[in-house]
Write a structure and sequence with these properties.
Elements lengths: L5 E2 L21 E3 L2 H4 L33 E2 H8 L11 E2 L1 E3 L9 E5 L11 H6 L4 E4 L1 H8 L5 E3 L4 H11 L8 E6 L4 H17 L35 E5 L3 E4 L2 E4 L7 H14 L1 E7 L2 H5 L10 E4 L13 H9 L10 E4 L3 H9 L4 E5 L8 E8 L4 E6 L5 E6 L4 H16 L4 H9 L9 E2 L7 E5 L4 H13 L5 E7 L8 H11 L2 E6 L7 H13 L8 E4 L3 H10 L6 E5 L6 E4 L2 E4 L2 H11 L36
Parallel strand pairs: 1-17, 2-24, 5-6, 6-7, 7-8, 9-13, 9-14, 10-13, 14-15, 15-16, 16-17, 21-25, 22-23, 22-25, 23-24
Antiparallel strand pairs: 3-4, 10-11, 11-12, 17-18, 18-19, 20-21, 26-27
Helix pairs in contact: 5-7, 6-11, 6-12, 11-12, 13-14, 14-15, 16-17
Length: 633
Amino acid sequence: MNEQPRERPGPARAPRPSLRRRDRPPGTLTAVPHADQTSAPPAEEIPTERPARTSQEGYPGPPRPERVHPVALADLARQAGAKLPEGGNGVAATGITHDSRAVRPGDIYIARPGARFHGADFAAQAASLGAVAVLTDPSGAERSAATGLPVLTVADPRAHMGTLAATLYGEPGRELFQIGITGTSGKTTTAYLIEGGLRRALAASDGLAQVTAASRTSGTPSASGTSAGSAADPAGPALTGLIGTVESRIGDDRLKSERTTPEATELQALFAVMRERGVRAVAMEVSSHALVQGRVDGCVFDVAVFNNLSPEHLDFHPDMEDYYRAKRQLFTRVRSRAGVVNIDDEYGQRVAGESEVPVTTFSAEGHPDADWRAADVEIGPLGSEFTALGPDGQRVRAAAPLPGPFNVANALAALTALASAGIDPHLAAEGIAAVPGVPGRLERIDAGQPYLAVVDYAHKPEAVESVLHAMRKVTDGRVHAVLGCGGDRDPHKRTAMGSALARLSDTAVLTSDNPRSEDPLAILATMLSGAAGVPAHERGTVLLEEDRAAAIDAAVARAEPGDTVLVLGKGHERGQDIAGVLRPFDDCEVLRAAIQRHPGPHQRTGLTHQATEGSAPVTNRTDNRSDDPSHPG
């Protein structure tokens, strides 16, 4: 029998206004008055991103390991099935990249075809920076040969990027315990929660006794007894790693992320750096784009996690079946050793049945057939608690450090993955509960206002609805929500997103997200059609404001004590792409500035929405968010 969530006991609350009461005036559809726009800050006042760090002094791009053993070009050619050209004997490589700007001396430059240019057009630049060879396809061979470098020619250069990079860096993934997370929603949060559990396990003397890659073969032993390409065991404590949409982390060292899953050459280099610095286990988001494009070639995940699947990225995938098949790749023998799957999702049930690797199932809805399921769920104002029931009679009291039923599912996914990795589930639960929050995921902005202000990355219909339902549960007053839809992305979700915002918010402010090459007003018109389709007695007041800063300002201006202001769509991002120009824009900072401009008579330090005892806070502000506005998959 499924367990039903119950509200955590607390002080009595006045009933909040309902959007479905027929005796209240219907919502309105209006543009924000010009007077509301004048108080929004000009773009130049918005804090700008710090300059991107370089991985090592003088070199752009992601980090590289400090010590790499040269690998003969002849061996790499043999691995790729390419003929070794004249002049290739005696050449050895120490790195590999597909970006001509990031070439370092000793690199193989991968010249692959692109949408507008061929990488071979930049082979001369790569040669000038110290490349020792070029890997390309037949259409780029002649231009690459003009550099005088040895050229390896293969049918599809991308197909060899991951495996060649893994070889060059000494198969670093074999010495890391890797947990990969895929799904439409919740990848980032689940990755952070898993990394928190891994940290707690590492802090325990025997917490990672079974979570170690040391027992696996780690490449060809070198004369020193370590793996080829690896460093000796580093001094200091063992560390955890994190790779995902918001950032990558090596222990506590943070690196900006350009996409959800790095390109294959960058990923293998990052693994090598992690190994070199003492990382033993890593939690990593794995997008459908990454699986289709071979970015995780050269990786075999010790545990693969499936969260859910709903319509998204249909500008990249022709249909949902193609999207599903891309995700399912993670549960093949060439990609993983074990699976953890959410069977509350119909696609998850398919994954569990079709997986080539052993699967442990979980259900936040209490499905009786699940190996791990949530029971005694208590929804709190800023977090939730539940009991995780395990396959061997385990009862583990756990906490989701973010609000909403969907974060119960994310926390249960993390706990199941960690338990499957051999970590004591009670220890795993401690680590999950200790995670302070996830940047741009229900991230609270506290500027002393007497209402809740939250930024979230929700940018698909199901996510928007889930977040609005979750915030409804913890809001005494009214919900004022801001949302836009990204340009050059799946246009079919825009109507549904406009509808959801109008139906579930008291004030729905439709605005721009990252319009990219599209007309922002055309995007807004589609969203508005969805909002207008909601029956008047179910619809909140709908405002239309193209300028995102003014839209946020308009929502804040309407907030009263006990309300919630919710800014959706961009989350951790620190830029807005308008007509191909990336302009500084940080929802968190813009929201904070708007709150400070509208202090109101009830301004004070702290929130009226206090967490009940034992609940964790909504994500606190952090400065480690990406400025990439691509909503990568």
